[in-house]
Fold each of these.
Amino acid sequence: MFRKRKRVGNARPSRTELHRAAAVREFTDRGWPQSTAALTALAMHPFDDGVEPVNGSWEDRTRRASMAFWMQMRLLENPESVASLARHALTGYRETAIAAGDPYYARRYDTTLEQSA
């Protein structure tokens, strides 16, 4: 299955959670819808600090893909174009997680894509 790290007490947010929150705040300050900002932040930071990927080999591919997404996203100004690119990136992440047999991340990306539709 997957290994989940437990938070103890009032632990501070993880590094990835802080980065996602900062990205969402930056995008909403630009006037983007909250849903587009959250979708883009997840595509930029595809892994949760509390859950390690089941098979590490797909993690490297997904990290490279997230960097490629970020480079392409910087060139776009239109939030709808960025949202479309983020959905495409998350679909790729989901397919990679399914191929690697990682149920947590496959479900995580699938749920996010369903909510953004």
Amino acid sequence: MDASVETTCSLRFLALRPDLVAVVRKHRPEASDRPSRRVPDARTVTFDITDDRDLSWLPALVRDHGVASDSIDLFVSTVTEHDSWIVSIPDYVLSISRELSCGIEVSFTVV
């Protein structure tokens, strides 16, 4: 990727039960959480993802605890110097999206 393109990716659980926040924190202690806007008593939990971090625990968390795929999304933020550049979503993000059957939200900013 070009040096003047910066892409960050994160995963968001938009309505996670409090007991599952602890499960996420076991794997990703740096995850942020706040009250969910969707579901009372649920939490929105967010953490950065990269292609070199182990995310093999995610499918089991989603499957075993019945986390709805529409309450999970991947967020890709790209900052670039030119508005005419084509920026691809990283392959590992596409793979996670397919595995969890969740959407991808994209933010594209030109500076």
